[in-house]
Amino acid sequence: MELLLTGEHLTIDQVRQFIADKGSVIVADEAVERVKVSRKIVERIINERETIYGITTGFGLFSDVLIEETQYNQLQVNLIRSHACGVGKPFSQDVALVMMILRLNTMLKGHSGVTAELVEQLVFFINQRIIPVIPGQGSLGASGDLAPLSHLALALIGEGRVYYQGEETDSAAVLVQLERPALKLQAKEGLALINGTQAMTAQGVISYIEAESIGYQAEWIAALTHQALNGITDAYHENVHIVRNSQEQTAVAARMLDWLEGSKLTTRQGEVRVQDAYSLRCIPQIHGASFQVFRHVKEVLEKEMNAANDNPLIFDQNDETLVISGGNFHGQPVAFALDYLKLGISELASVSERRIERLVNPQLNGGLPAFLSPEPGLQSGMMIMQYAAASLVSENKTLAHPASVDSIPSSANQEDHVSMGTIASRHGYMMLENTRNVLAIECIIALQAAELKGADRLSLKTKKKFDEYRAFIPSVTEDRQFHKDIAEAAAYLRQDAYKA
């Protein structure tokens, strides 16, 4: 696909499709014109030697230090080099790619004062899939994601590390190979590249895409478990959910009934028991609440994806130009949303682990073998998979602590309150991976339990899923190394988020 960037209308669904299709970006003509207008204002500031933050002055506490005219461009290069101090495991290539798209999109709003050459360099890197290696740790989430975005900028000027055609290498070598000159930063451009929330927002976008997908995946996995435990369908009746006034809860209940339609393993209230445990009966309420979280997070992220969030901002309106130092780089709105996302993700894992326990516990699983063991005693069966799920759920509880409640002053107290939103984004994705592994475990165990109850009695839709996953997760006839099954199931679940 060709993704048209205007600075105004980028959506998460477009980003997901772009990744799935291995697409390319193009820039709207009117956006290019806005970039050129804002650049002319920067050039006027330079010519008239106005005192404007980050253009003719230093940064942070050095904002009152005037820079010599001959050093304006060097100031920007120095900024990038000194701020590129990220550490730790790099962001994924998908996140780094989205980071470039988002940084480009905000520049196209025409408030950043960058050159057309910088816009063209970003387009080239995106479309050639020259992906900067961007360490994941080191951002406070205010004054922009300074360290991560500096590593992005280093790649553009030929001084960073990149992934290209499956290998990690120097960006300078790739640019030589492609006969592409390194970008020469002009006044304001280094600051325009790093003052923004694109690291936390890009990771948030990827987390949202995969979280929404795993929310839907959790429903058919839960439907398998529901049938293996001869669950009651009455609790999903639409009357129950309509009176709760929750669109998401009602939708989950409807989808659960759809997954279970035609099953010979489900029951009605009073046939086997009057009520199911909450982990079955309250799936619409619990999963629906997670979808409420996802809806809110999507709204916040899409606003930020199309926001001007660098500093200073340039305005050309009513025959008047304004250059204003503000704080749109502060990540607080995104930080709150990403901490909220962590709650929605964690509960999908928490309730899944409770369903796992019901499947393997002989006191709760309705006559299935203890731990679904093919030879109870001699073979442990699924016993320790529940341990693994419990461990992941417990780890999620520690990661769920809101990063946004913390703040440490920086730049000699000039920047005295920060969002820590990038920490929230990283922890959220860690929780997502944990949750996906928990659901992979439930999937594997539910497949076995459903087989023991009679796979031919499953609903038509869940039988199709049963056959799909049985193609690479064989029936358990003896103990084996289940970590391989878990990894394969989790990877397969992740693929669903990016299906074209």
Protein described:
This is Histidine ammonia-lyase. InterPro entries: Aromatic_Lyase, Fumarase/histidase_N, HutH, L-Aspartase-like, Phe/His_NH3-lyase_AS. The chain is mainly alpha-helical and 500 residues long. The protein has two domains: 2-196, Orthogonal Bundle (Fumarase C, Chain B, domain 1); 204-498, Up-down Bundle (Fumarase C, Chain A, domain 2), CATH 1.20.200. It is 55% helix and 7% strand. The chain has 18 helices and nine strands. It has helices at residues 12-21, 29-48, 72-83, 93-107, 116-128, 146-156, 171-177, 189-194, 198-228, 238-242, 247-260, 278-281, 283-305, 332-360, 383-399, 421-454, 460-470, 482-495, and strands at 2-5, 24-27, 87-90, 131-132, 135-137, 161-164, 167-170, 313-317, 320-324. The strands form four sheets. Strands 4-6-7 form a three-stranded antiparallel beta sheet. The chain has a two-stranded parallel sheet with strand order 1-2. Strands 3-5 form a two-stranded antiparallel ribbon. Strand 8 and strand 9 (320-324) form a beta hairpin. The chain is elongated, with a radius of gyration of 26 Å. 52% of the residues are buried. The mean pLDDT is 95.
